[in-house]
Amino acid sequence: MELEESMLWQLAQVAEEQTFGSGELVVSQGEDDPDKRFYVVRSGAADVVRRDPAGMERTVARLACGSYFGELGLLTNQARNASVRVHGTGHLRVYSFNALDFHQLVAENVLVFKVTRQHRKQERARPGTRRLRIRELELLRNMEPSDLEYVMKAAEHRWFPAGTPVIEQGEVGDRFYIVLDGELEVERDGTLLGEVGAGDFFGETALLFDTPRTATVRSRTHALTWSITRSAFQRVVGHYLLSQEPTQATIMRRAKGLLDAG
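Request: output the structure for the sequence above.
Response:
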C-alpha cells in the first residue's frame, strides 16, 4: 500500500504497539469481539491457521514484516474466519488500530490493495478500468474542502463479495453509498432496473424523501463502496447533490420513477 506522508503521520498518532510471545494467539477463529482490531506486522512472523468443521487445523499463510490481518472481521462485521498465532520462538510485534481509526484512516487503502490483488486477472480482461479514490471522484469535485473533510471523517468503506445485497427494498434507509469499484445490479419487485458502477451513487432517495428503500442493490461482482450515515448525508451531501446539475437530474429521475411506481 502506498500512503501519503500526511496519512502516515496520522496513522502513527493512533497506532498502538503490541508484542506477542512465542506461540501466542493474536486473534482466534470464531471470536466476535465488538472491539476487534486491525493489525500490521512490525517484526517477527505469524501463522494464519484455519480450523475445519472436524476440528483439524491447517496453516494457510505465513505473515512477515509489512503484512496485515484482521481487516475482514471489521469490513464484514463478522466473526474471525481464521486464527493468527506467533510463529517460531521469537516475538511478534505489531501496530494495531481500533475499528474507528481503521475505517477512517486505513480501510480505503487496504481495500483498494485487496481488490486489486484479488481481481488482477479480471483487470487484464478489462483494460482501461481503474479503482476510484474519494478525492478523485467527479461527483464530489465541487464540494467545499471543509465539507469534503467532514464527510471523509464520517465515511465507511466496505467490500461486498459478488451476489451480496448492499441495500434491500423495503428496509429503512440509513446510509448513502458511492461505488469505488465493481458492478452492482438495481432491482425493484424482482425486476432488473439497471446497473451502477465506479463513480455512481445510490441510496439517496430514502434519505431525501424519508421513505423505505425503493429498490434492492446487489453486487454483481466484488464491489467496494464508500458510505456515510443519514445525518452526515443530510448535513452536507444532500443539499450539495441537489445543487449540482448532473446529480440533480439523476435524483429527480429516480424520484419520478418512485412516483410512477406508486
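The radius of gyration is 20 Å.
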